[in-house]
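TL;DR need structure tokens for one chain.
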Amino acid sequence: MLDFLGAKLSAGWASLACGLLLTGCNQSSPVHKVTLRIKGSDTMLNLAQAWAEDYKRVAPDVEVEVSGGGSGAGIPALVKGTIDLYDASLKLRPEQIEQARQITGKEPKAVTVGYEAVAIYVHQSNPLNEISLEEIAQIYGEGGSITRWSELGVKIPGTDGDKIVRVSRQPNSGAYEFLGEQVLNKKNFKLGSLDVEGAKEVVELVASTATAIGYSGLGYATPAVKTLKVKKTGNDPAYDPNVAAILAKMYPLARPLQVYTLGEPQGAAKAYLEWILSDAGQKVVESSGFVPLEPKSTR
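>> reply
TL;DR here they are.
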């Protein structure tokens, strides 16, 4: 009789232990959630959010948290360890890489995940169709001589305004830094522009201002604005910011999109990057208005 009661008590304790621990004993194990924190380029924000949404179906146990703030905000967060991945529309400078190495003992590692065109936007009513890098520099650069649309040979219909309204980004923006390096040759920007925080806001302001010009990622184009063809010099052919021109390195304002990790990617971050580079991840790049990598067979 005592043996029987002892067996019953043992079985009862085993059942209770199974219920408390939720492991084994014909019960499914709890799902362990992993969170990936991503911060960086406003240009890449829509793309990063689209990736995160699609990845839920691939890896439901991984929560991908995305925020913008500009390329300049990403590297400090990566170095401090408050994020796992840094979206960058501009390559890190050697001194930034060295600073990260000194602080953390690890070197930031970049993975190119696609390409982007920095498009030059004007209002849809603007008759201008193309512009050269030198003309952009004369509009935006300190000491630049172009301040009126008539100096580019056009008149904006429906308005008596001739003064060019320059829409620009904040200095912590990758697009701002890219234009400064690639077009202004590291000269200062001209004072008096309308500076906005995000890539989307540039396009919205140009769309509502007939005499405006702005620069932002091609992925933010809308029917309310027009993208100009761009040429290196006045004698060169001008190219639209499209896939063929970017992959052929013809469009002069194209740049790679990169995702950085601190040291070699590991675990969930590595799996996420591998998915981004897959056909499924690259389809998201294309559908978001960016240029995907060339097919794996040709890389």
